[in-house]
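Hi D.,

Good news: the full-assembly prediction came through. Inputs first.
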Amino acid sequence: MQPPLKSLDYFQKSYDIRVGQLKEKRARGTKIIATFCLFVPDEIIFAAGAGRLVLCGGRTDTIARAEQSLPRNICPLIKSSFGAVVDACCGGNLSCAHVQLVDVVVAEATCDGKKKMYELLPEYLPTYVLDLPQKPGSPEAITYFLSELRKFGKYLEDLTGNAINEEQLKKEINSSNETRRLLHRLFDMRRCDPPPITGSEVLQVMQKQFFLSPDQFREGIRQLCEEMEHRIPPARSGPRIMISGCPMSAGNTKISDIVEKKGAVIVVEESCTGTRSFWDLVEEDKEPWTALAERYLRIPCACMTPNDQRISHIVDLARRYHVDGVVYYTLQFCHGYNIERIRVQKALKKEKIPLLAIESDYGDSDVEQIGIRIDAFLEMVS
Ligand code: SF4
Ligand code: SF4
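Then the structure:
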């Protein structure tokens, strides 16, 4: 067992500092925007002088609160997120540190469950919904999304009282690209055999990405990369596994923990808490609004159709990271990722890469059963 990476402490410490910073900023009049999804461009929020935090829930204890109004048979991420908002706004005691800091939620038209949950949110927090074309490959999609982004920009200008100028927007694009490049550096090191960091460690970092300030996050990634460069890798590791599928929001580390406790090493995550958040950069030489629209519409989320780009990205990652098998993770009742698994499995089969499909919620009643299935899978791919 290797000693833990010291730079990981940085992320927890920075998280605590960040809560205080956002409180102060808000007291001084800075508007704080909460988001739930990668499709809302940070660059526009920051260019308007606002702060940003994430409300995407991975906690299990807020679900019961949500189930008092939402149906039980929807995705746990939606219930957890909604439950945290309702609890915090109705004087509950689950203490979500984020909700009290929020001025406006910027939601997005992605899956049905989220869209309908967003119709209930305004009862608790002011909510703006960014619309998305659902067929990103169609010629009209960019034009429409571009107009939506400009409308969103105008909304933020009115909210903050700050004009978004092109120069500031370009600065924010460069800043976000710098973060993306650093994450590529971090993920590249995981191609080593054995990798100098575990998947559970990377997940702790990625879950902080949308809460820390960009400067804080980048500083942490730099420190982590430097430490990893000097870390003596373990003598050997188990099978190399890719996790692919639904996001693992803060509080939810279940599948990564089980996979690595069973002796495998996760070398890459194709998810919103993995490559999907940083893989593509925004073109820096282009007109910034168009460059943003193009980059964000390329996010390979299963809410989009057809989603060929995701299938080829997964195959590309499997080759690049020399994976022995893929654990395909779906949150319960997430139909998009669940159904898309069929195409992913077919594409991986052609590459002779086995896939294990796991559907789960945030509870721990299935931990043992998942462990047994993962044991059998790892034995097969070893
Ligand atoms: S899976 Fe899709 S809808 Fe969910 S957070 Fe990621 S990009 Fe957004
Ligand atoms: S995991 Fe699936 S069902 Fe849940 S919010 Fe994301 S896209 Fe929607």
